[in-house]
């Protein structure tokens, strides 16, 4: 157990070092816009990685596995992965190019131009709450994973993870977030990719899992449930577009074409990255847990860490845990920065301190990062379901 904790501690240290290194590339003369948008010079490949990593958070992975495993939901109700992927595609098709061409700084800038500063500031509240809910969802996913695999205190794991994410985000803004996202997405891909073969082997192989799962899970909804299915799908697709975390990457792209390509390719990446979680959830539902000392998980939300702990070797479980931790930080830091950016640019700058200096704006941004991170952490300590928070995020925006 101590070796597993040591590995996770080293991983956290590595992420923090990368974030601090990226932050040191800033100069004292850079404007708040440079801090928010990395000077609008984010390379396309880095942009794809950071946008995909932002969407593929701990809630994305744990929530997908939870839905696939749950007898009441099943694969047909695991809508969030493909719906959020489509939201990125539609965002690129209808909004990304124009937003980047007009040179906006945040999602709320078009509303400020059209309706005025007060309206834009009012719209900040639901956008901020959505980001806080998203941050809380991914922190809960990490807490349950730590508690299941390492028998580590859930509250402590949430607090440590949030502190690391807040630390490098406050120091380097989008540049730190983007470059840590590259490392984090690679960790997710490797960590869950290594775990899947062990899980399938324990469950009888891919064909056996597919056959057993199709027989066990409910089919497509019937009657009035069909309309509920379409309603929730549209909620996620349309609700997945107006996110500052998304448009922050779009607006940080080098040009209009890069912003559109970024959206399309990240949407594909999001769909692909959901596959390991779907497999783990399906395998967990067909395993005969009665033959195992551990039994089934106490809650469907714990299925992914439960499978990693009991169906993979300890070393693989630790790598899988690192993957979930990477997913959490890649989403948490983005949500924290997004909400803080909107506050500084659309509330503080135009309404509270129109003549604020660049230095003051940078300081306020860092204070806002700490405040938003604290709010998301506090909510994470009080909630239960990852998937419920996920829907709530889309509903608010």
From TrEMBL:
It is a multi-pass membrane protein. GO terms for molecular function: choline:sodium symporter activity. Keywords: Glycoprotein, Ion transport, Membrane, Neurotransmitter biosynthesis, Sodium, Sodium transport, Symport, Transmembrane, Transmembrane helix, Transport. Belongs to the sodium:solute symporter (SSF) (TC 2.A.21) family. Pfam families: SSF (PF00474). Its main location: membrane. One of its GO terms (cellular component) is plasma membrane. GO terms for biological process: acetylcholine biosynthetic process. The chain crosses the membrane at residues 6-23, 44-63, 75-96, 156-174, 186-205, 225-243, 264-287, 315-348, 369-392. This is Sodium:solute symporter. The keyword Oxidoreductase does not apply. It is found in: Membrane.
